[in-house]
Amino acid sequence: MDDARRARLTEWLRAASGDAALAIGGMTLLSGGAIQQNWALDVSGERSWVLRTDNAATLAVSHGRAQEYALLRAAHAAGVTVPEPLFLCEDPSIVGAPFFVMRRVAGTAAAHRVVKGETFGGGREACVRALGRELARIHTIRPPREDLRFLGEPPADPCLAFVADQRSALDRQRHARPVLEWGLRHLERTAPPPVPAVLVHNDFRTGNIMLDERGVTAVLDWEFALWSDPHADLGWLCAKCWRFGNDAQEAGGIGPRAALYEGHGGVDDARVRWWELAAHIRWASIAVDQAERHISGVERNLELALTGHIVPGLEWEILRMVEARNAA
Amino acid sequence: MLREPPEGPDLLATARAVLLDELLPALPAEKAFAARMVANAIAIASREAAQDSAWEAEAVARMAALAGDPRAFAAAIRAGRFDPGAAGHAEAAALLDDITRARCAVSAPRALGKG
């Protein structure tokens, strides 16, 4: 971030915080994700903040910063462990894109370290039990909510709404995807009965949850949240494709599935299994879209290009899951 | 044999070994991820170049016999024409397996480990 932007940001933060003497001591890029940028701000008065803003090219399916800020506020009020949201700036002229500021939280989110560590979150069982409790708090947020109006009308049948959304996504893509269709058709035929939709984080997985030795320090990355079946979050976390190689620990490669379910309460295992297949299909479709950004020239990038090559492995897993479910 | 050896696959494998064995250890930690991505890209491209592409024409022919082109095949699956119990279910499942196995052999050979 250049000097001019930094000066504009300082002025804006002074007005937003009511602290006319506020000064930015340090500013470093924490992570340049495919979609967002996170900047660590060291602010006078020993305040540690994070500024979150958009990359130039963003996925059409993710919420903007204003919506993500509203979701963080709702989650914070519901008792979910999130970084406290502080200020929102929708004016793109300050740093080049809308941004918000939240408190900086210590901890580790890096998936490959988290699945290998035995002590994150107080040990594997305690950790996934805590994750179950976090999800249960998220799922207490229910429609209608004026502050979350941008999420649209909740679906009458979240499972069939998922199938319809995924088919629309496939119809927008460059190539036909017979294996993903195969999985979606199976999901359509075996969809469990409708449940009332609640707030679903929709990217609650290892890598997006910050942990320390004592427990969860922050649930991150709210930009895909929607009204859906609460089991969707449990299925996404348990899906084999999000265990980062530690398959034996079925809850995100971190801990046992049973402890996650206990922490959450009221879990229907069959629904979670349905959503685990759904998770593989959705991740494959997202991977196709990410590779398409490279292929189309929107953003030439090796990581995006390689993400496309995840798709065949996910398809193989989808075929094996459908086969096993058909035989059961 | 009019091309000059060593040919592409040998060059790619040798270049990848230099990257992983000589360059990666000398790189700063924050560049290791990029170097591993380059090694992965070389590996995928090498497997693609080495694969006998005959499977593709064979798969297209089997697909045409079942439903038509890939788009028609996908639409037929969506419409339930190859549901369990329907005529062609086993053929469609076998075709999807064969296509995906060939795709994984290039992109993600480890996925086939338990297949």
Structural write-up:
The complex is a heterodimer of chains A (328) and B (115). In chain A, strands 1-2-3-5-4 form a five-stranded antiparallel beta sheet. In chain A, strands 6-9 form a two-stranded antiparallel ribbon. Chain A has a two-stranded antiparallel sheet with strand order 7-8. In chain A, helix 9 crosses helix 10. In chain A, 45% of the residues are buried. Chain A has two domains: 101 residues, 2-Layer Sandwich (Phosphorylase Kinase, domain 1), CATH 3.30.200; 217 residues, Aminoglycoside 3'-phosphotransferase, Chain: A, domain 2 (Alpha-Beta Complex). With 328 residues, chain A is of the alpha+beta class. The longest helix of chain A is centred in the last third of the chain and has 27 residues. The radius of gyration of chain A is 20 Å and the shape is globular. Chain B has 115 residues and is mainly alpha-helical. Chain B folds into two domains: 43 residues; 61 residues, no CATH class. Chain B contains five helices and no strands. In chain B, helix 3 runs antiparallel to helix 5. The chains are: A alpha+beta (328), B mainly alpha (115). At the A-B interface, helix 6, helix 10 and helix 11 of A face helix 2, helix 4 and helix 5 of B. Chain A: It holds the Pfam family APH. Chain A: This is Phosphotransferase family protein.
Count of DSSP E strands of chain A? 9
Shape of chain B: elongated
- Catalogue the unreliable spans of chain A: none
What number of structural domains do the residues of chain B give? 2
Oligomer: heterodimer
Query: Into how many domains do the coordinates of chain A divide?
Result: 2
Which architecture of the largest domain in chain A would the CATH scheme give at its second level? Alpha-Beta Complex
Q: Strand share of the residues of chain B?
A: under 5%
Mean pLDDT, all residues of chain A: 94
Radius of gyration of chain A: 20 Å
Distance between the termini of chain A: 56 Å
**Helical proportion of chain B?**
55-70%
